[in-house]
Amino acid sequence: MSSRDNAARRVLVTVLLGAFTVSLNNSALNLAIPELMRVFNATAIQVSWVMTLFLVAMGMTMPLTGFLSKRWGMRRFYLLGLWLFLLASLLGALATSLAWILAARALQGVAAGLMIPLSLPLIFAAWPAGRRGRVTGIWGLAVMIAPAIGPGVGGLLLEMSSWQALFLMNLPVAILALASGHLCLEEGERDREHRFDLLGFVLVTLGVGGVLAALGDMNSPADLLEAAHWVPLGLGFTLLIVFVRVEHRVSHPLLELRLFAIPPFRASVLIACAQAVATFGCLLLIPIWMQRVQGYDALTTGLSFLPTALMAAICSPWAGRLADGRWARHAVAGGLVVSAMALIGLAALGHQAPLWLIGILMASRGVGLGFGYLPATTIGLNAVGDARVAQASAMNNLGRRLASALGVAMLALHHDLRTSHLAAGGVGPEAAALAALSESFLVLAALILVATPLALSLPSNRREVTPAHDSHRATQISRK
Known about the structure:
By secondary structure, the chain is mainly alpha-helical. Helices cover 79% and strands 0% of the residues. The longest helix has 36 residues, at 389-424. It is globular and about 65 Å long. It is found in: Cell membrane. The chain crosses the membrane at residues 48-68, 80-103, 109-127, 139-158, 164-184, 196-215, 227-246, 267-290, 302-319, 331-349, 355-377, 398-414, 434-456.
């Protein structure tokens, strides 16, 4: 085994540790919401900002990662993100008020906004193009297994200790990741002449922040009629539209939107957005479906997500290997079709569906996610050229965040409006909820199927789109 291979493996382990601790923290902290409501005598809406503020801060930070990594280096800002996450975890554990916890969560969101988009670029910098699929699959295993075990870890810590333990549990892995990062990560090339796009930063930050904050704070269709919700939502979308126009005119854009002119990258982002809407949509719909319609308790509902996460984690390395070969597009298309069929199956289930059948459908969702997401992302990032991977990764992540937030809000509004309409027509509450949820599952299945032809347009062999070729092509595009 060569020294270069050993160095690449150390980089992979380092990035896995960082990504794992962020993913584990988020999924485990969900369980603390009822406890935080009790301890701080707060409402559900107030405590929900523990999750919402993290997502908003992360979404507002992500557009910066391309510029920061290009100007000062990926290693520096990835490690900065890790240090911030460690500090924020300590602050959260020491919190004596809800406001203090919210500040810690916002800082964790900033840290995640730096770390997550730079995870794959760091791996890509260490591994050759022909082996990136399989190592990305290993990265996907860690990222997907963390949410699977997070609720169990969080529940165990809450039983044995207190909510502070959910912040303290981040420290050992974060410290190990920092030590490994300082020893193993190498600084890449920098472009000190690259200028900061201040106008673009202000527009995209306020735009993303306004959209995510407004969508995250909506709890019913009536919220759309309140200026406190629709004003920031409308303003956010307006600022994002202006941002797109500005970025096409400046010589050093904050986000190189011209990369969307590269077909494999464009297709990979659209596929990722469709998968994100379906994934986060199910996080909203399935608990309602399991508890209101099927009559299962909260513990059973939580365990129902375990087959999805486990199968996605198991399939990711296998799918990554396929992404390096001639079956890449077929793996992605097959994953999307399996995801859509699982959603159609959920829509077709009536009252009192057996747990074994629900488990099979949820596991099928995991198979579809494992094959349908990471290989497409790997192909898309390979197509833009190594110099622009950080930019492309940030845009992929930002697109998924915005798409999933918008999709979840629309699904929630549809559920409330549809159940109210059916109830007004004399349909019973349980039947109305089942009808609304079945329609939502079918809409998500249709969205996935619409994205499937995009998978068939992806290159199925790395020789079809080489990094060197597309790097030159992307440079030409950016100069137009």
